[in-house]
Amino acid sequence: MFIIKVNSAWNRDQEHHHNESEWKEHLLINMNSSSCAIITFLLLFIGCSSRPLYPLPSHDEKTKMPLQTFRPFNVAHRGSNGELPEETAPSYLRAIEEGTDFIETDILVSKDGVLMCHHDVILDDTTDVLDHIQFADRKRTYEVEGANMTGLFIFDFTLEELKTLRAKQRFSFRDQQYNGKFPIITFEEYIQIAINAPRVVGIYPEIKNPVLMNQHVKWPKGKRFEDVFVEILKKYGYKGSYMSKEWLKQPCFIQSFAPSSLVHIHNKTDLPKIFLIDDVDVRTQDTNQTYQEITSDRYFNYIREFVVGIGPWKDTIVPVIDNYIETPTDLVDRAHAYNLQVHPYTFRNENKYLHFNFSEDPYIEYDYWINTIGVDGLFTDFTGSLHRYQEWTCPSSSDNRDATKLLQKISSMIVKYELPRRT
C-alpha cells in the first residue's frame, strides 16, 4: 500500500516535465558551455541506461544484492524525509527505492514500554496530536537535558494511543501533501522494512534520550531501555562485528549521543557502534562532558574500545562563519588515526542548508566531503541525490564504471563547444 502511494507521487512529479525531448531541449539551450557538459553527461546516462541506478535482484535472500562497501555509506536520515514525513514506512521505502545503504531511525519508548521510531521526545511538531482533543490534558513539563520542556511527551502515551496519530512534515518549506496520512511505526516494524527489502539494506537505529526514557518508563526485572533495544535486535537476527559474515548479511550500526549507553551494551552485542557528537557548546546528556573532552585524543583512545566510529555534526568538522565554510579541523584525520570511522550529519538539498562555497549545489558539497574531507558515511535527508552522485562518480558495477568513463570522455569533448542561445 505504501509503495503504491509513493510511486504514484513520483509519477505525478514526472508529469510536470511534459515530455522528455522538450525537457532536454529546454535544458540544453539555456545552459552555458561548462554546464552543458555536465547536463549532457546526465542526459546521456539517463538515456543509455535501461535499468534503475541500483539492481533489483530476486527476493530470495541467497541472491539479494549485497551491501556495497567500497565507497562511503549512504545513510537515509529518518528515511527519505526530504520528500516524505520522517520516520514513516513510506519514507523508509522511498529511501530504499532510491538506493540507500542504511535506513536510520531514532528510538524512543511508549508509556507501555514499546520501542517507537520517533525523533522528538514530544509529539507536537511532527504528528497531528494537537488535533486530538482527547489528549489535550496530557501536556506536561519535564526537565530534558538540563532544561524544562513543555509538550505532549511520547512516553505519556500507550502504543494503542500512538497508533491513532498521523505524521506530518517537520519543515514548512517541504512537501505538505502527505501530512496526516502515515502512522508512527514501531522499532520492530522498521526492522521488518529493512529485512524485506529486495536487496541487503542496513539499519542504523539510535538509542535516543536514554536518560529520560529510563526515568519515565520501567521494565520488569530491572531492565533498562538499552537492554530492551538490544533484545529486539537479537530477536531479528542482528549480530556480528563490523564486516563479519553475520554483519554483512544483516548490517546494523547502533548509535547514541550517550556514551554510557554504548559502554553499557558493549558486552551485550558485538554489533558496531557509533558515538554521536553534537555542537561544540553541547555537553553529553549522560556524562556532562564537553565537546573538547569527547573529541580529545585521550577520549578517542578510550572510546575506540567500545565504538567503531563517530557521528559528528558536520559544522563541527568544518566550521562555518556567515554561511561560508572555514578551514577544516583535524577531527577526521585524528579519528582515522585511532581507526575510527566518521559519519557526519546532516546533508540537505535546500539552499538554506548549502553553504555559499558550494554554489547551492548538493553535488559539489558531496564531492567536497567525500573527496576532500574523506568521510566514511553521510547522513542525508535526500538519499536519492547522494546515490546518484556516487553512481556517476564511483559506480557500483563494472558495467556502469565503463559506461561512466566513456560518458565523461564524451562530456569533456563537448565542453569545447557552446550551443547557441535561443533569442
TrEMBL record:
This is glycerophosphodiester phosphodiesterase. GO terms for molecular function: glycerophosphodiester phosphodiesterase activity. Gene3D superfamilies: Phosphatidylinositol (PI) phosphodiesterase. It comes from Lactuca saligna (Willowleaf lettuce). GO terms for cellular component: vacuole. Its EC number is 3.1.4.46. It comes from the Eukaryota. Pfam families: GDPD (PF03009). Belongs to the glycerophosphoryl diester phosphodiesterase family. It is an enzyme of class 3 (hydrolase). CDD domains: GDPD_ScGlpQ1_like. Residues 72-390 form the GP-PDE domain. Keywords: Glycerol metabolism, Glycoprotein, Hydrolase, Signal. It catalyses: a sn-glycero-3-phosphodiester + H2O = an alcohol + sn-glycerol 3-phosphate + H(+). One of its GO terms (biological process) is lipid metabolic process. PANTHER family: GLYCEROPHOSPHODIESTER PHOSPHODIESTERASE GDPD5-RELATED, GLYCEROPHOSPHORYL DIESTER PHOSPHODIESTERASE.
